[in-house]
Design goal:
about 290 residues; 11 helices; 2-enoyl-CoA Hydratase, Chain A, domain 1; about 10% strand; eight-stranded mixed sheet; alpha/beta
């Protein structure tokens, strides 16, 4: 090709290279939702970890919308509410639409996060819903009695030892727990009503039972708005050359060289790391994942 013929082509390439294409930053919300401490520290979603990512996404120059890539089986209702409210706060301040894309699962607290978006898009096989509250534990009183272990428990306050796993379960304690769960459940239901409104297409007794469904069924119930994947949906909406920068936590220097420390402060060991993995796995297994 003559040198003169390459000049227009090169000019067009440079012009295209520096043209400002539409931008939709993508914030990945993946994992169990829990406070920053405990066994899942560093492995979970919390307001402390997510807030800087949301700020970077909504502050991005030229952003046309913000996308949330959600893959979470739920967890803490408090952290779910804090993250969701922060999303709505930024969206109102910047006037940007928020689109949630559900991957494997957005259930319980994960669905709470999805409802923070103006639109929820799923895969037909995604799991959504589980609008309920759960509390699980163990009772060891017979086990310790079998081995001759004496339980010694001293409290100031008659309710301080409620649902102690080494003492027989008391009906009044269970009733009190159910009242607490009902209050949290009411808050969850109010949030879904506020965010989904007239889009809900089924009786609340069904929607708020704690049951979960596939993305395809969730669309029929009005829990979600459409079926699709993130890239194809955003390219169809904002053009084939839309920029989709992934907003993730900035990696620490040591982690870049494979020297990151584990939750206990040393290199990942089989103690806390293994317990964290088991706890995390239990959350996912509730949904067959």
């Amino acid at each position: 090709m003559p040198a003169a013929a390459t000049v227009p082509a090169m000019f067009n390439w440079i012009k295209d290279r520096f043209r400002r294409h539409p931008t939709v930053p993508v914030v990945r919300l993946q994992g169990v939702i829990a406070s920053g401490g405990g066994l899942l520290a560093g492995r979970s979603l919390s307001i402390d970890g997510v807030a800087p990512l949301l700020k970077r996404a909504f502050d991005m120059r030229g952003a046309k919308a913000v996308a949330l890539a959600i893959n979470s089986p739920g967890g803490s209702p408090v952290q779910s509410a804090l993250i969701a409210q922060r999303i709505r706060l930024h969206a109102a301040e910047k006037g940007l639409p928020v689109i949630a894309f559900v991957e494997d699962v957005a259930a319980s607290g994960g669905y709470w996060l999805a409802c923070a978006a103006d639109e929820i898009v799923v895969d037909p096989s995604s799991i959504v819903g589980s609008i309920g509250v759960i509390s699980a534990g163990f009772g060891f009183q017979d086990l310790i009695a079998r081995y001759g272990v004496e339980r010694r428990l001293h409290t100031s306050g008659e309710r301080k030892s409620m649902l102690d796993p080494f003492s027989p379960e008391k009906p009044e304690d269970v009733e009190r727990l159910k009242r607490l769960q009902a209050e949290i459940h009411d808050g969850f239901k109010d949030w879904v009503r506020q965010r989904r409104g007239a889009r809900l297409k089924a009786d609340e007794a069904v929607l708020f039972s704690g049951e979960f469904w596939t993305g395809k069924r969730g669309l029929e119930l009005g829990l979600v708005d459409g079926v699709g994947d993130l890239r194809a949906t955003l390219q169809a909406r904002y053009g084939a050359k839309v920029r989709l920068p992934l907003i993730g936590p900035r990696r620490r220097l040591l982690s870049r060289f494979g020297l990151a420390t584990g939750p206990a402060g040393g290199m990942d060991g089989i103690g806390p790391a293994t317990l964290a993995a088991v706890e995390e796995r239990l959350h996912w297994q509730r949904f067959g994942l």
